[in-house]
Amino acid sequence: YRAKSTRGRVARYRVEDDPHGRDRLQTLEALRAALTRGELVCHYQPKVTLSDGAVRSVEALVRWQHPDRGLLTPDTFLPLAEQTGLMRPLTLAVLDQSLRQLRTWRDQGRTLSVAVNLSVTNLLDTDLPDDVARLLQAHDVPPSALVLEITESVLMADSRRAGSVVDTLRSLGVGLSIDDYGTGYSSLSYLQDLPVDELKLDRAFVGRLVADPRSAAIVRSTVDLAHSLGLRLVAEGVEDAATLDLLRGYGCDVSQGYHHSRPLPADRLEAWLDARGRSRPAPRRHDAPPV
Ligand code: C2E
Ligand code: MG
Ligand code: MG
Ligand code: MG
């Protein structure tokens, strides 16, 4: 395989750069096999509530533990899964794994919820709500402990069908979040109708917050917009303390990014949570309300 470059430990081979080659077929077969062999693993990145520093939720981010190529990030295999009908089994595998993990954490007394990303094809799949309901039940997880992150592109692909899948998911009682908010084309129109709980402002805005007053203005007004609509605002891609301080000043609710933690395998996330619990002062009894 031609690795495009090898920055760090993650190979940057991109399947979509090689649309007809043998690599693609081999990778497709390998991905199919990976799904049955359990080579797809979830890493988890904490979402930090800014009012009290608590971690109430983690986002599951899929990786492929490839036998030869090492740990692959989703950009290297999600496009292929999307094009070849493997997105449904992939999403079911991620939901199954992350809900099982959440059950374990809750049994350990960790009152977390988990966020799972959905793709375009998932939201056009009218069987998805039944699948979600079945998996929640199988792992004995309450619907309120699952958040589904959907992107704006999903909603534009076929908004009637996607809208009905979203409504059905909503009626199960799962939380809904709009991911990469601000990068799509119709950011405002669907906010009128969509029953979501959370906006995740794309890291393109968050990353430039400190250096660029225009980005700062966008972030500030998006916080206000979210709050006017009764939604939580999550900032993604928070990489330093200066950015975090500004976000706090703007009234942002939740922060996620390398500044807090990279996505981690489940056992390392547990260690991170435990270390953080020891170093943070115990919250006072009458502290800020939960987010
Ligand atoms: P996303 O859902 O917007 O997730 C955030 C991405 O930004 C993750 O990349 C995360 O590792 C990265 N990130 C987090 N904090 C920082 C930061 O401070 N700085 C920078 N530069 N990056 C940060 P990842 O894990 O490579 O995932 C990329 C995208 O792939 C995700 O974007 C999501 O759209 C998709 N994805 C990941 N897992 C799944 C999955 O299980 N199912 C589906 N359908 N899509 C997934
Ligand atoms: Mg996401
Ligand atoms: Mg995002
Ligand atoms: Mg993203």
Automatic annotation (TrEMBL):
Domain (EAL) ranges: 24-277
Name this polypeptide is given: Bifunctional diguanylate cyclase/phosphodiesterase
